[in-house]
Amino acid sequence: MVKHGRLLVIGATGDVGLGIVSAALASGRSVVAAGRSADKLDELAASEASERLAVIVGDIATEAGATALWEEAVTKFGGIDAVVVAVNAPARLQPLMEMDVDELSAIAAANLFTHFIAAKTFLPRLSDDGLCIGIGGGTADFIVPKMTFISMMQAALRMMYRGIARERKGGAELRELMIVSMVNGRSKRERAQPEWLTEIEVGRHVCAILDRPDEFPGPILKLTAREQVGRSEREV
């Protein structure tokens, strides 16, 4: 039997989310793919065409929305064993000092608070051997021109996952997987470089964590290059 065999993927139609869904299905898992766009979810369902795939429209912008999403997800395959949150809302690139507080607040709501809502909503509802994985970015450690605000959110996201993991006593486990690479996904295929990780490679690494969580103790994990896919940082 596949460990964590019933998977809920939030942000399933994004570049990384698509890779996770595809890799999870290939590994034998049943997947509930959640996103905000019914059209994109329909495209996903048509491209994968698997009886082990269910799609639902919803979001985690509010606790009420996240709760409703969970309640629908658990009906698809009789429960959920693990959750992956692959939410990363795009934003217009600009210098930090040209932004205002409202813009920063909107970016935080989409890229940071969504992960907080997911952890708060899903962790208590998962079984004690469940697992919740949030996808983060390597810019928590460096700044790309006109993307300081993204580095701010990613650094805060990492500390949030660390803090929640430290505060929790028992129950489902929590990880953040930081992707320290550009991802060759659907939206970047035409300009992707050979060294970029593909979305399927990211998905396979997520499946390795689901299969062998004890080998990926976290709470913060990093995936930097394809040589690491499926292997813990201690093995590389």
TrEMBL record:
**Pfam families per record:** adh_short
Q: Kindly indicate whether the keyword Oxidoreductase belongs to this entry.
A: yes
Domain of life according to the entry = Bacteria
Query: Any idea which UniProt keywords this protein has?
Result: Oxidoreductase
Q: Which GO terms describe its molecular function?
A: oxidoreductase activity
Oxidoreductase listed as a keyword = yes
InterPro entries given in the database record: NAD(P)-bd_dom_sf, SDR_fam
Spell out the Gene3D superfamilies in the cross-references. Answer: NAD(P)-binding Rossmann-like Domain
Family under the similarity heading: Belongs to the short-chain dehydrogenases/reductases (SDR) family.
What's the name of the protein? SDR family NAD(P)-dependent oxidoreductase
Species per Swiss-Prot/TrEMBL record: Sphingomonas koreensis
> What phylogenetic lineage does the species belong to?
Bacteria, Pseudomonadati, Pseudomonadota, Alphaproteobacteria, Sphingomonadales
